[in-house]
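Issue 218. Parser rejects a valid record. Input:
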Amino acid sequence: MFSCIEKTKLKLIAILIIVTAILGTAVFFVYGPGKKQIKDVKTGGLIYYELNTADVTTVKIKKGEASVTLKLVLGKWAIETLNNYPVDEDKIKGFLEKTKVMKKEDVRGTNPDKFAKFEVDNQGLLVEMLDSSGKTLAYFHIGKNAENYQSTYVRLFEGNEVIVTGENMRAACSDDNKFWIKRSALGIDQQKIKELAISSVIEGQTTAQVIRLTKIADAAPKWVLKEPVDAPADQATASAVTGAAANLNIDDIVKDVKELKEYGLDVPAVTATVTLEDGTARKVSIGKDDGSTHSYVMVDDKPFVLLCGKSQADNFRKKAEEYIDKQVCAVDADNLTKIEISRPEIQDVVLVRDDKSKEWSLAGGAGQGGLKLQTVNSIVNTVTSLRANSALLDASKAEIDPGKYMEKLVITETGDKKTVLYILKLSSDNASYYVKKEDGNTIYAIGKGFGDNLLKQYGDFIEKKEETEQPKPPADSAPSNPEGLEKHEQPK
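Output the parser choked on:
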């Protein structure tokens, strides 16, 4: 049997156990599991002075019915409420850092009736940060910006103080999933792209075209075309498309994805594969347009249907011809030594430039009228930087026989460097001439005016005298034949 003293002790112990249990239950319901109790923070001090951002693995953000949950998955932040799409790492790191350095700059009041004025109630954001065990590390309301728009009103969860912090927390956080998405689709450095291959079906075509651009290190031109032809690439076009791949920007993500066919991604119209210098390969698939200003895309075959600007997607939808360098020839006028022009049944023209005087002369002589420098300069200016309006990959479409030509020009520079150019034929609309270089297979369309500058015969280089009698060409030359522009077989 217990003595009276022992009974009294047992009663006291029982009372203490009951009181402890009641207090523990009260704390549980007030603060919730893992909720960190509010501590007094002195003005000027850090609000979450014990917070280690490396311990945060989950961030929950609520505003009314809207909510966002960000989670650390395998060392990378993802949007749990958006199928674990990657988070913009800079944004989440910036927000965590701002939370860590939040200071209690001032207190604007403690009256709950005034919470709405500062939007530290349901009008604002409620943020909770947790560690891997589910313990709450930070829990607070973000209200509106203070007067200077660089500070923000905040209130600790279940607290009454409306605190002014010097950090712009409102700009660093949002309850919208779209705010947190990683915008850069590939996140690569354009300078590290070694090759870009694009397979696409262009409107009006039935088969896919394959374009392959390769970067040549320490060379000019920097980019060359390897498919569908081996040719110098248009550097501006190559730079634009590789830049579009490196900087492809995502504007939104389709939350509830249906069949890929609905977005044109079951069999993408365009597939771009980027190969980096270290051998890493990344892929972008482009589907339909959304009917407005965006196009549907997928990256690296990951299960996300994304939206990028249509203008960005259009960079990958160019025809193969657009990737070909339109520079037909680019010779140095100061280094020119000879220009030879040959046409069927018409006397050949040979212009020679003296090394010392730098003056041009006509082989065979120009007679009493002398050399017509205006015609010479016209040819020199044209070949110095001749650019085409377009390039053709299929000569048959323009009914061109690359083995026949109207005129052949051989342009010689110092060191016996030669550029051989063939003028093939006039286009059906009489707006351009088709030309090709001897060392390439590409056929270019140059403006008719440029072609006319090059289509010259012997008499065009002789200055006319006012007197009736005109100088005669050398006795051994063939007679002038203006009608002799028919094409003839290109000598092999």
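Fixed in the parser; the record now loads. Helices lie at 4-31, 89-100, 115-118, 177-180, 235-246, 310-314, 373-384, 448-454.
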